[in-house]
Amino acid sequence: MTGPSEIAVQGDVSSGFEPVREAFAANFSRRGERGGACCVYRNGEKIVDLWGGIRDPKTGAPWQADTMVLVYSATKGLAAMAMALAHSRGWLDYDERIAAYWPEFACNGKEDATVRQLLAHQAGLPAFDEPVDADTVADLDRLAAVMARQTPIWPPGERVAYHALTLGFYEGELIRRVDPDHRTIGRVFQEEIAAPLGLDAYIRLPEDIPDDRLAPLKKANPWKTLAHFPLPLIFASLNPRSLLFRSLGINPGTALPDDLDRIYTRELEVPSGGGVVSARGLAGAYNAFASGGDEIGIKPETLAELTALPVPSAHGFFDESLRGEVRYALGFMRPCRNWRFGRNEGAFGAPGAGGALGYADPEDGIAYAYVTGSMGLRVTADPRDLALRKALDACLGKPGGDQNR
Predict the structure, then answer these.
(1) Distances (CA, A) of 332 to 11, 188, 266, 307
(2) What was the pLDDT predicted at 241?
(3) Which residues of 43-80 are buried (b: 16+ CB within 10 A; e: fewer)?
(4) Less Cβ around it within 10 Å: N or C end of the chain?
């Protein structure tokens, strides 16, 4: 391939995975990519490491191998890794009641809610009734008190509703309670996973990260985005009383990670939507799980839990917030009819609004990450990410296709 798209692409792919490079180049020439990166591991070996385009459109600075960008809900995968580490360390049991670790939580109908139900978005806690802003999020004791007082919208385990931002805050308080050193979830991820593996991946972005390591995330036009939503999601997005609007649009809202002066907010933890990573960092974290977990002490029984089939709520997997079937388990999203990724049902990962995705497929030994500096318009199937995964699966020998590919 020649022309500007070829000039934009840097990095390498292993022999046999050239189609992934071709798909990545085509993202620039045919799918509107501005700047981004893709990284893939197979059985612990990096087989795809690509980046290209513009990091900062104001200066024209190029995207580098270590450029990091906000990945919104793909952060949920990082938080889930910290929860899995806590399980492997024996700090918590997925089937234990949350209140066993957090006594103040046992009120207003949450007394018997389990960790597993929370991590499957089945706790009935997708939004906050009390006001929550950036100052509240920064004061973990104050935030914990708000969460402990929250009343679930239905009995835990009854239904599924995407805990768009709340999930990470509840996970964070659980980690503070069970970690022997009472660290935050951002610190646990950084000190136990990212730092030992040498990864550019942060739940809590440090103050000392220079701005020139970060790609400002170009937001998608909200009206153009709505045009790609299914009709039920359009209505939910515009209705201030809907679960989707209450969980995602307000109180505290998705603007928490933004900072007009420093690109992204520093020293603030938004574990469900504020992660800042490079593609190498995101793929490297998933590689620790895809290759058996030994590098960071993930036990086989924890990995078996992560790859087991998800447990449905009493009313199945229909997400009352996203208005369709979505499967979650232990903090990760799992492959389902509306959101396919990986070649095997044991794959687990997390997508982010606008196109980012990271996942592990331990059966194939695959760890995948795609990040972008320009948000796409689709809810579940960004054409840039899909093109990369379609090429990857073809190289791996995936038979057939599905509605998202």
Answers:
(1) 29, 18, 25, 10
(2) 86
(3) eeebbbbbbbbbbbeeeeeebbeebbbbbbbbbbbbbb
(4) N
